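Reopening this ticket.

The earlier resolution said the output was attached, but the attachment link was broken on my side. Pasting everything inline this time so it's all in one place.
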Amino acid sequence: MLIKKTNIEERLQYLKNKQTNEQDILQAVHKLLAVDNHKDDLVLETLSKSNDANHNDFVFDLLETERIYQLEQIKEICINYRLRFLDSKYFKGELPYEAILKIKSLEKKHNTKLNGFKIIAPSKLFKLENADDPLLFAPIGNGYYYLIHKWGNDLNPFRKILMWPYKSFGNLIIATLLVSLIATGLFPEGVFSNKPNSTQAGMIFFFIFKSIAAVVIYYGFAAGKNFNTAIWNSKYFNA
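Inline output:
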């Protein structure tokens, strides 16, 4: 039996359902849009033309609740799966025509010009400055984002597990310790002595741990890698 691939949109929806309920989201967004409708027209015009726009003039009653996500939910998904959440201008993958049609449809339905598009995707799909499963969003405002379109293939089902060591420094240390313990257990007995003991096992573990840690540190510095918590919204390759 084949293992099902990870659908990031489904995981994001699951996380949102755990943390919030539909009524809370509706009330928060309704309040937000009600306030925004009274903002100065000049401010709205400036936001709509800016590349860093964090607001769109959506019509509340036309929004689909299941497509509204909070920034914290997006951040958690990106950290867990080592994804990035960046402006669409950095996206180097091919934007499907279906996404363009959905944007045009939303603009017509809400009678507005959408701005501030952002995309969730693996780092390799972005044009990152030096220092598989894209999701296109538009900002509603106040940390809320509206999912416009998802395309491409789902993620490897083991991606979350494989990326767990990169989540934080503590995770990396734990992963290195676990790998060292496994390697120590697989180390042939009697290599250094005919009578293996706990002292010998400790020395082997310490040697293996130092070796693996050295490789991890070298790879991290050489490749300019950083932890998931630091790169999820960074536009830099070596952030």
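Reporter confirms the inline version is readable. The radius of gyration is 23 Å. The chain has nine helices and five strands.
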